[in-house]
């Protein structure tokens, strides 16, 4: 396994606990929120629920479904990510890049959707922040979920394409020799 694939597996493994913790916060609201009996598990979210109202009281009170919907998708993505790690590192399956690509495109697309949703609602959930707070507490962490998945999708997509071209060349040679 090349360094690139080790880094992809490392990203998937290291982000899994973060994603599960985040989904736990979202799916356990209001108990996970500031003032809730389980908030001690998610205490950093006392700040984040004020930075991003999607995670805050307003979204919960308005029964906005996006927060929990994206959390459910996060858990599905994480399961696929870990399945990729298993397929690539334990089984050595040539199908692993397809699973990894599908999962990481989900992550990339959902995160872009999150940003575009903010744009089209006039920054309705994050526009109240100062520029330094916005950059440090929303753009930087959320930007990582576009940058790294984008790079991973590019690498896995490139490899899948190369393998498909190689298979097509072999198939064409087989047809010509028959």
Question: How would you characterize this protein structure?
Answer:
It is a single chain. With 178 residues, the protein is mainly alpha-helical. It has 6 helices and no strands. It has helices at residues 3-27, 45-51, 57-61, 66-91, 96-120, 131-177. Helix 1 runs antiparallel to helix 4 and helix 5 runs antiparallel to helix 6 (131-177). The two termini are 35 Å apart. The mean pLDDT is 94.
Helix and strand sequence: HHHHHH
Q: Uncertain segments of ≥5 residues (pLDDT<50)?
A: none
| Strand residue percentage | under 5%
- By helix and strand content, what is the structural category? mainly alpha
Radius of gyration: 20 Å
Largest sheet entry: none
Care to count the β-strands? 0
Calculate the terminal CA-CA distance, rounded to whole Å. 35 Å
Average pLDDT: 94
List key phrases describing it.
mainly alpha; single chain; 178 residues; 6 helices
Provide a quick synopsis of the model.
It is built from six helices and no strands. The chain has 178 residues and is mainly α.
Topology:
Layout: H1 3-27, H2 45-51, H3 57-61, H4 66-91, H5 96-120, H6 131-177
Helix pairs in contact: 1-4, 4-5, 5-6
């Amino acid at each position: 396994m090349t360094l690139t694939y080790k880094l992809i597996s490392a990203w998937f493994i290291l982000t899994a606990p973060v994603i599960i913790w985040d989904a736990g916060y979202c799916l356990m609201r209001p108990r996970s929120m500031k003032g809730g009996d389980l908030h001690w598990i998610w205490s950093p979210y006392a700040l984040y629920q004020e930075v991003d109202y999607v995670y805050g009281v307003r979204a919960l009170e308005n029964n906005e479904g996006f927060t929990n919907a994206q959390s459910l998708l996060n858990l599905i993505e994480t399961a696929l990510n870990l399945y990729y790690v298993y397929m690539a590192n334990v089984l050595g399956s040539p199908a692993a890049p397809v699973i990894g690509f599908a999962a990481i495109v989900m992550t990339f697309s959902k995160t872009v959707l999150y940003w575009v949703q903010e744009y089209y609602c006039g920054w309705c959930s994050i526009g109240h922040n100062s520029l330094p707070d916005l950059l440090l507490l929303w753009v930087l962490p959320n930007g990582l979920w576009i940058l790294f998945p984008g790079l991973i999708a590019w690498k896995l997509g490139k490899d899948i394409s190369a393998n498909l071209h190689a298979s097509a060349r072999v198939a064409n040679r087989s047809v010509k020799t028959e």
